[in-house]
UniProtKB/TrEMBL annotation:
Keywords: Nucleus. The keyword Protein biosynthesis does not apply. This is MYB binding protein 1a. GO terms for molecular function: RNA binding; sequence-specific DNA binding; transcription corepressor activity. The lineage of its organism: Eukaryota, Metazoa, Chordata, Craniata, Vertebrata.
Length: 1055
């Protein structure tokens, strides 16, 4: 923020002390504001100070100089900034005189020992003020004295640390070369000569070399410290020591020391970067295993990336710094550990953004992709920096990834293993293990490139898709130019696990392709589906048995279904009917999805579904929508996210053609109750699994098992019933042990069978609930795509039933998710929908009955949270009725004012008298029933959205029982201030409403003051008074309380 200079005026040196006193307290308070920590307050005070300096310049300078050494740390920068602005605005003030005042006021030699810190900061911030004024570089004498003062302050490192040296470097970067050579070189020569004694002096020399190359030539450097260059073999040990010292001093700031970056730039300028990097960084700094030093090396690597040539870039990306960085990434994955990976990603992101050389971009991506931990790259497979690659570099990077997948070259990788991994290595094929990990990363990396927002051609996307599909389901037998994927033979064959992994990633890629859009999701520029191109490619592979072979060959049934599917898709594409375009598109998408899944799932379900869909598409059955819905429901039972998304997409296209029967199929599945027996068994299973000890105890008292055990013991004469004292011989004992062991083994099998059955029932319940959650997606799609469809009304009660059932059932996580999803759909997709059905003229009576039924259920319910959903549904129906126009144009049941006539159309489908009676009964129940599930917020929402509902009398306060009168007053308090209510009535009607409300409250207050506590009565009275408008208060002032004297009325008002 720049403060504008003050207008021309006399010098502040002409002011006297009387002028300061005449300014008054406002002027003196400016200095207090300057010392405050808030930056905005400081700046405003500085601006005001510049306007007042005409009469108080000397005093202001004195106060500002004194403030430079203030005890409070937040005050010093404020006074320094203010002094800088003053010196900038009043150029007639000599800088040397101000500097002398600073030295005199904050004399380091005369000040007391306990105030040395304040004095040191006073001198430092004084020099900072002179420099920030922009005049210091122009005044050579002041510049020279300021440099000398900073050199003195450099000895006070205990207090100032490296602030003086940093400020000296900042000043040096602004000084012209001639001034440096003629004025400053002499006084800085000692510091430059001792450059290798401290990081600050080395930094000063490096800045001078880059800023004034004409002065600090090699000959001059040789005179200073005996060497014409900085980076050479002789100076490497000293440079390492200085860099280590700088790293430790900057560890709290977590940034690269400036001396490190300048040394890197000077090494490049001197042509000694390789020497600096290999000897100083990799062989020097990494000898000391220190966190700050390691992080400085990582930051040197990141900062060097934009400055290096291609060869230098490849060198550093294969060095020890990269390997140490990879070990850091792997070993710091645990929480609560400092992670450098985000910072390195920012360095790479910056490099790729600014670099316009595709070769250097490619070298960067390959370098980080070959930094591997036992074959697996340490950078994430979804690394977002790829979005900055140029098209040429991206294409070459994809080609490199494909080559590495086909012919893994572990020798080009910078691979490492952690100490724990070395200890846990078993006698297994390490090379194969590394190759499998590398291929897993590559196939996911290719998929993430398609998902990334980087600009890419359709040919590249299709190339990646074909590559993933081929190596997921096919193998090369012989090269052919017709199939590019066969041109490079794979060096290490893929095992079954690798094929399965590639297949899973391919179907994940299909999900991405289904969302890629030019104009329509999942469609290429030529108007065909992405999945259609892949199916064509798959058909080509299936017909090329001479060159390729399928990992899992098709059976005859699968091949027949495949061929029939392709023919059906071609027939659908030939049809040009615009009215059935959505239908044809949905059939195509569904057929192609089912066909491509034949490579992964060879079950009878998919083959039979394909046959049914083909028949439906070819014969154009009248109930084709119901058939599609049934197929979609069967597909949703599959554990595939791709099938789930495409099913939603297909359903979204057939929504306009959905029939009531088709919708009922969905509702029957998603809202069907589980069998009571299954639920009981599941509940029993859950409870018994949680209490294993009780299970065992129950099993111990199993009468059947006890009787069997007694029989075995009796047969072996082990119960002692025989009176003879002879013991059992060894053979008898062995036989008895064998029989007992067999009996217990059989009993254990029965116990395990019961547990397995309970576990099966529990898993089935989880699958059913998960299936219902998926089916809810279809309900949500229908509400979002067809909010104006009358079928929406058929969804309301089923959703409410689900919410009610889930509220009263177990609260396990899956049940909670199901409830939350249902409530979200009901609230956001239904009740809050901006669009609704506009054709309800024939449904008027049914909808009014529906409203009455919903309100009655809300009243009868015992749970307020469930009653709220029923009440919200009734308000949704009110919105629909109010927004529709009737063809019959009946007379309004109640006379309406002009404003109300504008609010509710004359031909509105809403029967105001009927719905008013419904909600009036509900309000009466709310104000008379102790445990009512209704709440005041429900009626407040009603009156806010439909002010016409206030046309009936206000809440009947006087007729309510005493315990509910205060609640009625609270509701009245919230209703009367509603802006919507006032806008829907005329002034006369509003005054009548207020007068009636006051009359009822007055009646209640009079009764309660005579029969109950005064506090309750006064509370009721003033609840309404507080929220009324000006003419309401007039009524209260004019009409005294009925049955009370004016003195009593005044007493109530005073209370």
């Amino acid at each position: 923020r720049t403060i504008p200079p003050a207008p021309p005026h006399p010098s502040p040196g002409t002011a006297n002390r009387c002028g300061v006193l005449r300014k008054g307290r406002a002027f003196l308070d400016l200095f207090w504001d300057i010392a405050k920590p808030e930056q905005d307050v400081r700046l405003e005070a500085t601006e005001n100070l510049l306007r007042h300096l005409r009469d108080g310049g000397e005093y202001a300078l004195k106060r500002l100089v004194e403030g430079l050494g203030a005890t409070r740390e937040a005050a010093r920068p404020g006074f320094s900034l203010a002094l800088a602005q003053v010196l900038q605005a009043f150029e007639e003030i000599p800088l040397c005189s101000v500097l002398e005042q600073i030295k005199e006021k904050h004399n380091l030699e005369k000040v007391k020992k306990k105030l040395v810190r304040n004095a040191a900061f006073g001198n430092f911030f004084g020099v900072m003020a002179l420099f920030q004024s922009g005049r210091l570089v122009k005044d050579q004498k002041a510049l020279l004295e300021s440099i000398q003062l900073l050199q003195q302050l450099a000895h006070h490192q205990t207090h100032l640390r490296d602030l003086p040296s940093k400020t000296l470097v900042d000043i040096l970067s602004e000084v012209p070369e001639t001034v440096f050579e003629e004025v400053l070189f002499g006084i800085l020569q000692a510091d430059l000569t001792s450059a290798f004694k401290s990081p600050e002096n080395l930094h000063l020399l490096l800045v001078g070399m880059q800023k004034f190359p004409g002065v600090l030539k090699p000959k001059k450097l040789k005179k200073l410290f005996g060497s014409p260059t900085i980076v050479n073999e002789e100076n490497i040990p000293r440079l390492v020591e200085l860099l280590e010292s700088a790293a430790k001093s900057e560890k709290k700031d977590k940034k690269l020391p400036s001396v490190g970056l300048d040394l890197l730039q000077v090494s490049l300028k001197e042509g000694a970067f390789e020497l600096f990097w290999n000897e100083a960084v990799e062989n020097g700094l990494f000898k000391e295993k220190s966190g700050p030093v390691s992080y400085m090396c990582y930051r040197l690597l990141g900062s060097a990336l934009p400055l290096l040539s291609l060869d230098q870039l490849q060198m550093v990306l294969k060095g020890r710094v990269m390997q140490h960085y990879g070990e850091h990434v792997v070993t710091t994955q645990l929480p609560d550990r400092f992670k450098f990976a985000p910072e390195m990603e920012a360095y790479v992101d910056k490099f790729l953004t600014s670099c316009d050389d595709p070769e250097r971009q490619l070298a960067m991506m390959i370098g980080f992709s070959t930094l591997t931990n036992q074959g697996y790259p340490v950078v994430p497979s979804v690394w977002r920096v790829v979005r900055h690659l140029q098209p040429v570099a991206l294409q070459k990077y994809v080609d490199w990834l494909k080559d590495m997948f086909l012919k893994p070259d572990l020798d080009c990788c910078l691979d490492f293993s952690t100490n724990r991994q070395k200890q846990n290595q078993e006698n297994k094929n390490i090379a194969q293990h590394k190759i499998a990990r590398l291929r897993k990363w590559i196939i996911h990396r290719l998929m993430s490139i398609v998902e990334s927002p980087v600009k890419k051609e359709e040919s590249l996307v299709m190339d990646i898709s074909r590559f993933c599909f081929f190596h997921a389901f096919f193998e090369t037998k012989k090269k052919t130019s017709q199939i590019p994927e066969t041109n490079v033979l794979i060096s290490e064959p893929l095992d079954e696990q690798a094929h399965s992994l590639a297949a899973n990633y391919f179907f994940g890629l299909l999900q991405t392709l289904n969302t890629l859009t030019k104009h329509i999701h999942g469609v290429t520029a030529d108007g065909k589906l992405w999945i259609f191109h892949l199916v064509e490619y798959a058909s080509e592979l299936l017909s090329s048995e001479k060159y390729v072979k399928a990992v899992k060959p098709f059976t005859k049934e699968q091949r027949d279904a495949w061929e029939r599917t392709l023919q059906s898709v071609k027939n659908l594409q030939k049809k040009k009917s615009k009215s059935d375009s959505a239908k044809h598109f949905a059939f195509q998408q569904l057929l192609l999805l089912m066909a491509i899944h034949l490579f992964k799932v060879s079950t009878f379900l998919f083959v039979s579904c394909l046959s049914i869909i083909c028949s439906c598409a070819e014969n154009a059955e009248p109930e084709w929508v119901e058939v599609i819905v049934e197929i979609l429901l069967s597909l949703l039972a599959q554990p595939s996210l791709l099938i789930r998304r495409i099913s939603n997409s297909v359903f979204g296209r057939i929504c306009p053609n959905l029939t009531k029967k088709g919708l009922q199929l969905i509702l029957d599945v998603s809202l069907d109750d589980d069998d009571d027996e299954s639920e009981d068994s599941s509940d029993d299973g859950d409870s018994e699994e949680e209490n294993d000890s009780e299970d065992e105890k129950n099993e111990e008292v199993d009468e059947d098992f006890r009787s069997q055990l007694i029989n075995v013991l009796q047969a072996g004469n082990a119960l002692g019933e025989d009176e003879s004292d002879e013991e059992l011989d060894d053979e008898a004992m062995m036989a008895l042990d064998k029989n007992i062991s067999a009996l217990f083994a059989e009993q254990q099998k029965r116990i395990q069978a019961k547990k397995d059955e309970k576990d099966r029932i529990r898993k089935e319940k989880i699958l059913r609930r998960d299936f219902k959650i998926k089916v809810l997606d279809l309900v949500e799609v229908f509400l979002s795509k067809q909010p104006e469809n009358p079928l929406v009304f058929d969804i309301i009660e089923p959703l409410l039933q689900v919410i009610e059932q889930c509220m009263s059932s177990d609260s396990d996580k899956q049940e909670v998710d199901f409830l939350q999803k249902t409530a979200h759909i009901f609230t956001n997709s239904l009740c809050r929908a901006k669009q609704y059905c506009k054709r309800v003229d024939v449904l008027q009576d049914d909808l009014h009955t529906f409203v009455e039924r919903l309100v009655k259920k809300a009243c009868k319910h015992t749970d307020s949270s469930v009653a709220l959903y029923y009440f919200s549904a009734s308000l949704y129906l009110l919105k629909v009725l109010k927004g529709n126009v009737s063809d019959k144009s009946p007379a309004l049941p109640v006379p309406l004012s002009k404003k109300q006539t504008n609010t509710i159309p004359q031909a509105c489908c809403l029967d105001v008298e009927r719905v008013t009676l419904i909600y009036q009964q509900a309000l009466t129940q709310f104000l008379s029933k102790r445990n009512s599930a209704l709440t005041s917020s429900m009626f407040l929402d009603l009156f806010t959205r439909f002010p016409i509902m206030c046309n009936f009398s206000p809440p009947h306060v006087s007729s309510s029982p005493f315990l509910f009168q205060a609640q009625a007053c609270l509701l009245l308090q919230k209703v009367l201030p509603l802006r919507e209510l006032k806008l829907s009535t005329t002034k006369e009607e509003w005054e009548e409403l207020i007068r009636e409300s006051i009359s009822q409250v007055t009646e209640v207050t009079s009764f309660n003051m005579l029969n109950h506590s005064c506090n309750t009565a006064v509370l009721m009275y003033f609840i309404v008074w507080k929220k009324c408008s000006w003419y309401t208060q007039q009524c209260l002032c004019v009409e005294p309380l009925e049955g009370h004297s004016l003195r009593e009325h005044a007493h109530i008002g005073q209370f």
